[in-house]
Amino acid sequence: MVEVIINGHAGRLEGRYHKAKRPDAPVALILHPHPQYGGTMNNKVAYALFTCFKDLGFSVLRFNFRGVGRSQGVFEDGPGELSDATMALDWLQANNPDARQCWIAGYSFGAWIGLQLLMRRPDINNFIAVSPPANEKDFSFLAPCPTSGLVIQGGLDDIGDAKLVEELAFRLNQQRHIDVDFAMIEEGDHMYNGHLADLYKIVGNYVIAALSKKAPAKKRRGRRKKSEIAEQLLLENGGVVEDEDDDLLDDEDDDFDDDFEDDDDFDDDFDDDEDDEK
Fold first, then answer.
1. Could you tell me how far CA 26 lies from the centroid of its own chain?
2. Cβ contacts of residue 144 below 8 Å, gap of 6+?
3. How many CA atoms, within 13 angstroms, populate the side-chain half-sphere of residue 70?
4. CA distances (Å), 192 to each of 196, 198, 222, 263, in order?
5. Could you read off the pLDDT of 18-70 as tens digits, one per residue?
6. Using CA atoms, how far apart are residues 240 and 253, in angstroms rounded to an integer?
7. Could you give the C-alpha distances from 43 to 12, 176, 215, 252, 261, in angstroms and in order?
8. Residue 119, CA atoms < 13 Å, CB-side half-sphere
9. What is the DSSP letter of 245?
């Protein structure tokens, strides 16, 4: 993982970037929670998403929105942050021109920004939205939602509204030609304290299942190979592993499901004050 500086419309944006070994590896952009509530690219949920995609063989970028950390500019509550995400995605794709897929993943405020970016970028293949703020933001712009994805919510969220998020996911899933899955972590609060490993595994299983499906026609296909990790994780959830594009998953990641058996191991990577980020 390396530190990168991206040219944004309001000045430089600081980020952290992991480059996959394969030149045609898929890419993922991670968007952090609300800047005015302490949200940064080092938020634990954002880092869990970053780590999950990295472990699955993606090239991954996370960055600070304008006015956060060493990123320049001031908070704009939507338009500016969407511009930042656009510039970050442009940078990620320019540095991975052969990537076979492009994913967006956001948490809370970052999920709202990510879904807006999804509507403007037909090159995004799939999305992960963790705790989208359905009680605070308008998501009616997702009409129609252009691609399939996964919505995750904590059942004990005291900041968001679990019922409204579930209803949002249900409405999206009623649209034609896409599938929007919903996962509720029943004991999870807004920060997923004690449940980061659950989040990591849910996202990992979803990504593996999505990559196991037939790739879009415009994308190149690699050699066909059955991944041991895909088999392990999907069978754990009662799924079926198909012999498709699982060669994207590195053999060295056979311990994917065991990386964070104890959430304390994951939490120790960060300072305690980051637990309060929204």
1. 13
2. 175, 176, 178
3. 8
4. 6, 9, 36, 10
5. 999 999 999 999 999 999 999 999 999 999 999 999 999 999 999 999 999 99
6. 19
7. 20, 34, 32, 26, 20
8. 13
9. B
Q: Is 257 exposed, middle or buried (0-12, 13-18, 19+ CB in 10 A)?
A: middle
Contacts of 125 (CB under 8 A, 6+ apart): 26, 101, 102, 103, 147, 216
Asked whether residue 238 carries a pLDDT value surpassing 70, the answer given is no
Using a 10 angstrom Cβ sphere, with 0-12 exposed, 13-18 middle and 19 or more buried, the burial of residue 207 is buried
Can the peptide bond before residue 144 be classed as cis, meaning omega within 30 degrees of 0? yes
CA-based diameter of the chain, in Å?
48
pLDDT in tens, 130-183: 999 999 999 999 999 999 999 999 999 999 999 999 999 999 999 999 999 999
Q: Which residue has the tokens 């012999």?
A: 243
pLDDT of residue 34: 97
What token pair was written down for 188?
């999870």
How far, rounded to the nearest angstrom, does the alpha carbon of residue 32 sit from its chain's CA centroid?
A: 10
Residue with tokens 């929105």: 65
> Would you state the structure tokens that stand for residue 230, as one six-digit string?
């895909």
Q: Are 117 and 87 in contact (CB under 8 A)?
A: no
Amino acid at 213: K
Sole residue written with tokens 């942050």: 81
* Strand 102-107 versus strand 126-130 pairing type: parallel
Classify strands 126-130 and 180-185 as parallel, antiparallel or unpaired.
unpaired
| Integer Rg of the chain from CA | 17
What gap in Å lies between CA 153 and CA 155, rounded to an integer? 6
Which two three-digit tokens encode residue 162?
């679990």
